[in-house]
Amino acid sequence: MYERKIPEDLECGINVAMKVLSGKWKPCIIDGINQGIRRPSELHALIDAAAPRVINMQLRELEEFGILYKKVYPGLPLKVEYYLTEIGEGTLPVIQALDQWGNKNREHILKVVAQVQD
C-alpha cells in the first residue's frame, strides 16, 4: 500500500476543496449531473474525451466524499443514476466560477497553449 512521505495539509480550505474536486473530469461530472444527466452512460457521452473507466473512478470518488449519491434500480439490465447531495450542491458556485473564469479567459489561454506547442 502507498504511504505518503509528506502528510496532507487538510487544515487549508483550498487543499480540502482540491482534494475533493481535483481530477480532470470531476467538475464536468458535477456540472453534468446538475444539468440533469444522471446515468453513467450519459456522462460518458457528455465527456467523450475521458475513458469510461476514468469517469467511473471519479464518480466513485465523488460518492465516497459525499458529493454524489447513487440510486440503483432493481432489474436487468441494472440501472444506476447519480444525484448531487446537499454538500455536492455546495460545490456549484465553485464550479460555476471556474466556468465563468474559463470562458472569460479562453482566448488568452488558447494563445498561450498555441505558443507552448510551437
Automatic annotation (TrEMBL):
Name this polypeptide is given: HxlR family transcriptional regulator
PROSITE patterns cross-referenced by the UniProt entry: HTH_HXLR
PANTHER family named in the record: TRANSCRIPTIONAL REGULATOR (PTHR33204:SF29), TRANSCRIPTIONAL REGULATOR, MARR FAMILY (PTHR33204)
Keyword Transcription listed: yes
GO terms assigned for molecular function: DNA binding
Source organism (scientific name): Pedobacter steynii
InterPro entries named among the record's database cross-references: HTH_HxlR, WH-like_DNA-bd_sf, WH_DNA-bd_sf
A Pfam family matched in the record: HxlR
